[in-house]
Amino acid sequence: MTSVVFSWNLVADFRDMWAYPFMVNAFRAGAVVAVLAGCVGWFTVLRRETFAGHTLSAVGFPGAAGAALVGVGSTAGYFGFCLAAALVLAVLPAPAGRGSGGPRAALTGTVQAFLLACGYLFTALYKGLLGGVDALLFGSFLGITATQVAVLAAVAAAVLAVLAVVGRPLLFASADPDVAAARGVPVRALGAVFLLLLGATAAEVGQITGSLLVFALLVMPAATAQQLTARPARGLLLSVLLALAATWLGLLAAYYSPCPIGFYVSTFSFGGYVLARAARTAARRFGAVPA
Q1: Residue 278 is inside which H or E element, if any?
Q2: Do the Cβ atoms of 291 and 284 come closer than 8 Å?
């Protein structure tokens, strides 16, 4: 991969790159997880559940390591551990107001630390996995199969379908949970459903960016979009477009360099957030938007 040189002839470069089936699969998988992360991430930032998202993404590492240890596919490990952790978080006492602060934060951190320790144990027990630890933590686009793309697409479709059904009451419960509860909205149940959707999303994104850099798609594009617009529909669309741009640019950069894709996706997402933050600050200074 390091011998491939970018020629600045975009047509020729893309034709050469997409001559490899694994790169076609990587772009397909990247598009799937970007759309999913853009939508679910927007609600994650709105609900101030980024710490829960971080925990669910981190447990993807022991999930994949444990799957290798018992001889099953890493995809099963990602989804199994992330969804199980989401169920654990869903039954924890809900914090006052929005977010995952208070006693729930301490319990969430405890679950995260224990499962990361399990991941380290799994890698120690199965030494053949040690060469792939970097890929599990920081992502890799190599070896993505058409079957994995199909699984990612099916799970993403299911998650987005559920999100579309609960989206309106979830938005109400996320913006003002007290008023929503007073109006009869099942805030607690919606929170549990959202955590399961978040767990499935973290499992998907972790297979592209690595477990430690899931935030690059789950939080950064959504946070950037919310810097630029407070309108839900525009924010969701912008979050998806930013995640898609970061993913495809990251894949392109990683193909022409020895650095992992997680680094590039994170860098492009972070650059977008910095620019959006600077633009919003400048707009406030000149009175274009309210302070």
Answers
A1: helix 261-285
A2: yes
